[in-house]
Automatic annotation (TrEMBL):
<dbReference type="GO" id="GO:0046872">
    <property type="term" value="F:metal ion binding"/>
</dbReference>
<keyword id="KW-0479">Metal-binding</keyword>
<dbReference type="InterPro" id="IPR008775">
    <property type="entry name" value="Phytyl_CoA_dOase-like"/>
</dbReference>
<dbReference type="Pfam" id="PF05721">
    <property type="entry name" value="PhyH"/>
</dbReference>
<keyword id="KW-0408">Iron</keyword>
<protein>
    <recommendedName>
        <fullName>Phytanoyl-CoA dioxygenase</fullName>
    </recommendedName>
</protein>
<comment type="similarity">
    <text>Belongs to the PhyH family.</text>
</comment>
């Protein structure tokens, strides 16, 4: 009798330990970098499980039902629930999760746009996924002297109602003088053209100055003000668009577990998710702790300050 064949065990992909010279050069030239298998399938599964637990267990009692606006409708969130979320884990709804009379049209776990903004401290699972050897090595390779972690979020991009995010620069929302923000964007599910993957204006970080910043207004709420300080990071070789030239965007479809590095000046966007599949991701940002982060920024540092990615030497 023939013996049955036993399939060999499937090996988990090797997690990179640092950027290669080629990857670092690509990031510096293009303003973004896709790094597959930055998180193991086991870690991704655990983060998805934790995300789904949070989405199903948070309470609607006394929730202000704050919606997160992507800016498509010239409105930006600025209530107290949002402005005091820098050291908490809070839940923000999709704009299109409500009827015209203000009632939820989706189950709560399918109505949330994002969860933020202190997951890297208050969630053990997401803290572990933030302070990894790879992330520390990336920050060192980029030349950070005192990298600080802030604004950690799960962005859900819900099926059928996931909102479009127009072209923007992360340093607009996390302004330092000079600009220093870098986004660490991690796919927890496959991100495709169908469910709203990112698109990047390749090299725009060297052409697009940060001209506005998202701030707290003196009379309350939030808005955009002109940048009075530096508009590009230090030691960045800048370029100019040719007259009448427009930025072109490249799709960034990625598999779950991929890390996407995004320069703070880089123009990037994502389209609506009209598909039946969610596009869950985890993202946090790093800024240079030695640069000026003033009190006008919408996100206030926790009492102990923004968390160090690693201890500076």
């Amino acid at each position: 009798m023939a013996r049955s064949r036993v399939s060999p065990p499937v090996e988990s992909p090797t997690i990179p330990k640092k950027l290669t010279a080629e990857q670092l050069a690509s990031y510096k030239n293009n303003g973004y970098l896709l790094i597959p298998n930055a998180l193991s399938p086991t870690t991704v599964s655990a983060l998805l499980s934790e995300t789904n637990h949070m989405l199903s267990s948070f309470s609607l009692t006394d929730h202000p039902m704050t919606k997160f606006s992507t800016g498509e409708k010239d409105s930006h969130v600025g209530d107290d629930y949002f402005l005091t979320s820098g050291d908490k884990v809070r839940f923000f709804f999709e704009e299109d999760a409500f009827s015209t009379t203000g009632e939820l049209t989706k189950a709560k776990h399918r109505a949330i746009n994002k969860i933020g903004h202190y997951l890297h401290e208050l969630s053990p699972q997401f803290r572990k996924a933030t302070f990894t050897p790879l992330h520390r090595e990336i920050a060192k390779a980029m030349g950070f002297k005192d990298p600080r972690v802030l604004q950690s979020m799960i962005i859900c991009k819900q099926p059928e109602i996931g909102g479009r995010v127009p072209p923007h620069q992360d340093s607009t929302f996390l302004y330092t003088d000079p600009p220093s923000a870098v986004g660490f964007w991690i796919a927890l599910e496959d991100a495709t053209i169908d469910n709203g993957c990112l698109s990047f204006a390749k090299g725009s970080h060297r052409r697009a100055p940060v001209t506005s910043r998202f701030v707290r207004k003196e009379g309350g709420g939030t808005g955009f003000d002109d940048v009075a300080g530096a508009k590009f990071p230090e030691n960045l070789e800048t370029q100019e668009l040719e007259k009448d030239e427009e930025e072109e965007y490249e799709l960034g479809e990625v598999k779950a577990g991929t890390l996407v590095l995004i320069h703070g000046n880089l123009l990037h966007k994502s389209e609506r998710n009209l598909s039946g599949k969610s596009r869950f991701i985890y993202t946090f940002h790093v800024i240079e702790g030695e640069n000026d982060y003033d009190g006008r920024n919408w996100l206030k540092p926790p009492e102990k300050g923004f968390t160090r990615l690693y201890e500076s030497s």
